Amino acid sequence: MTEPHDLVDKVMTELPEWLPAQRWFGGKDRPVTSIRPLRTSVLRAEEPVLVHLVVEVEQPDRKEPYQLLVTDHVENYDATAVPELTGALLDLIAEGGEVEGLKFEHEPDVEITTGLRGRPITSEQSNTSIVFGSQYILKLFRKLTYGDNPDLVLHRALHQVGCEHIAQPLGSITGRLDGHTTTVGMLQQFMPDAVDGWAMATTSVRDLMAEGDLHADEVGGDFAGEAHRLGQAVATVHGDLERALGIEHADAADIDRTVRAMTSRLDEVVGAVPELRPYVPALREAFEQARDTPDAVVTQHIHGDLHLGQVLRTVQGWLLIDFEGEPGSPIAERTALRSPLRDVAGMLRSFDYAAHQLLVGQPEDHQLTVRALEWSRRNRAAFTEGYAEAAASSVGDPRKSGHLLRAFELDKAVYEVAYEHANRPEWLTVPLSSIARITGEGAVQS
Ligand SMILES: Nc1ncnc2c1ncn2[C@@H]1O[C@H](COP(=O)(O)OP(=O)(O)O)[C@@H](O)[C@H]1O
Ligand SMILES: O=P(O)(O)O[C@H]1O[C@H](CO)[C@@H](O[C@H]2O[C@H](CO)[C@@H](O)[C@H](O)[C@H]2O)[C@H](O)[C@H]1O
């Protein structure tokens, strides 16, 4: 049997190679210069050993904590793939209590079934989620943010006002990190029959592409009805967030800060991705135009990284998941009050992604490009209309804030340029060609 502390020593020697290769590692844009353990909790001392480990990963200009769950039971030491070990985490949440500084809690008035085995989900993720039976999903946050994680905070707030478009929060795991009580895990109700919006939307696009002669409203897999309902669901969640946590009205100084933040993100991203350079003047101009807003801009807590992969279609309707915000943005930005139009813009970007991703790496085909644009326009319009129908009067119809919405969409596309550059370079053309289209600055080959 391996002693827990020998296991940690072994893991530490393997991490420089293993960590950067993980999908959830958020620092793929620069080299790792050092990794050191920050805290360890031995959750199981006998075989198979289970150790909760937080390491600090140092890279040029950043130091970030990452969470690991390690065991001697499998060759790569990653315990999240071992059902009997992850089952122990669920049991600890069910019982409640503290083990070596890690606190396991279930939400008030919730009873958790014990003895279930956990299986990790295999989708592309920024974190690691483990599903127990058909009942629960436990998300282990990988890159940790000191303090309460906004995903848990917003789920709790929404649940308290009876929001119908989220999965119920059921429990949490927290630990002390650098003096802060920090969320490391969140347990939620699992929706076994759910399909995510990205899978549904891309199926619809595929149907359309296969029927070269038909229009989006004529093919069987038309998505516009769903897009409309999704718009209503997003507006309802914004209304629920407003009821739970309130709103504020932005003044000229707030808008100035927003414009400057978008411009400075652009400067940062263009430094790393020179392909963005030709669009800089048009992007700056679009950001400046955001100052021209006819109505008062409302700010509130929002989802912050809304896209089709963050919404689940269940038999009861659409659910929004993952309220953590953009994984690549600083926590202060992610928890700030912001315009709900940012979420609208995120979803509009996603319709554009769904329409164009099938063309990536394909030879130029005029007919398919026209079809993709048509699908995107149809579903973006349906989503916006659904949103406008259900939006609280404080937010109103997004179409009335055209300049601001366009600026948010372009800002999101700039974020995506950085995201694709670091994670999926072959997809870089998707946000770049959208920027070219929206700014009218010439086309980029898909
Ligand atoms: N409550 C849920 N019920 C069913 N599936 C879920 C639920 N929550 C998340 N998922 C699945 O897990 C995936 C990742 O969840 P998400 O919260 O987006 O994690 P990450 O922060 O790692 O991106 C989702 O795309 C979805 O397929
Ligand atoms: O879901 P995450 O919180 O991990 O979000 C990150 O990854 C997303 C990709 O999975 C990324 O989304 C981008 O690609 C999507 C298609 O895969 C597309 O629907 C989105 O519109 C686009 O932004 C997201 O930006 C990133 O933060």
TrEMBL record:
SUPFAM superfamilies reported in the protein's UniProt record: Protein kinase-like (PK-like)
Single GO BP term: glycogen biosynthetic process
Residues covered by the Maltokinase N-terminal cap domain: 18-75
Entry keyword set: ATP-binding, Carbohydrate metabolism, Glycogen biosynthesis, Glycogen metabolism, Kinase, Nucleotide-binding, Transferase
GO MF term set: ATP binding; kinase activity
Family: Belongs to the aminoglycoside phosphotransferase family.
Subunit structure: Monomer.
Source organism, top-level taxon: Bacteria
Lineage: Bacteria, Bacillati, Actinomycetota, Actinomycetes, Pseudonocardiales
Protein name: Maltokinase
Pathway: Glycan biosynthesis; glycogen biosynthesis
EC number: 2.7.1.175
Catalytic activity: D-maltose + ATP = alpha-maltose 1-phosphate + ADP + H(+)
